[in-house]
Amino acid sequence: MGWLDGSYSTYRDGKFISVGTIDEVCDQIKEMVMSARESRDHAISELASLKEEKWKDNELQAMKTKLDQMKEDYWRGFPISAEEAAAIRSWEDKHWTNQHQAPTTEKRLAKMGAIGGSFSYEFIPTSIGTSGLICCNTCRNKARAKAYEELYTIAKDNPKFRLADRIRELEKEYDAVFQFQELS
């Protein structure tokens, strides 16, 4: 044995170590290189699978959904949900028809003028949430004017007359206010 048969051996830390022939050592090195290449190729294929179109499509679809939702919120102009927007439109239609005798768009446009402004939105932030109101400016102004008129004629003789309460009563009578967001 030893260098005559082509094998290599040595002593290390007082122990005999036999490595084998040069061909055996080269074969072991080749196997290690092949194993490292297979690991590298597997890692590359896994990385490629993460970047596949399907993964990209799922991510892009989720981002598009979020973007569409944000656009809808933006175009409504206020922080209101789609359900609240539908309830507001329903109330506006009933209000136009019942209070202003304007069931069609043409009649509504004739009553509101060139720049709109028929309705006002009010958001009342509190520590437990935000409440939202939509108010018909025409009816609200009528309710307030009538309440002030009553104030001047009735309040002189009636010290218990409460203007704010009367305004609220008249706003209900005129259906001037619709609460579309309520505190939970």
The residue ranges in which pLDDT falls below 50 over 5 or more consecutive positions are: none
Number of strands: 5
Question: What's the helix-strand series?
Answer: EEHHHHEEHHE
Radius of gyration: 40 Å
Can you describe what's shown?
The protein is rod-shaped and about 130 Å long. Helix 5 packs across helix 6. It has helices at 22-50, 53-76, 82-100, 105-112, 137-154, 163-173; strands at residues 7-12, 15-21, 119-126, 129-136, 177-181. With 184 residues, it is α+β, with helices and mostly antiparallel strands. It folds into two domains: 7-51; 79-181, no CATH class. The N and C termini lie far apart (90 Å). Strands 3-4-5 form a three-stranded antiparallel beta sheet. A two-stranded antiparallel sheet has the order 1-2.
Q: What would a concise description of this structure say?
A:
The chain contains six helices and five strands. Strands 3-4-5 form a three-stranded antiparallel beta sheet. A two-stranded antiparallel sheet has the order 1-2.
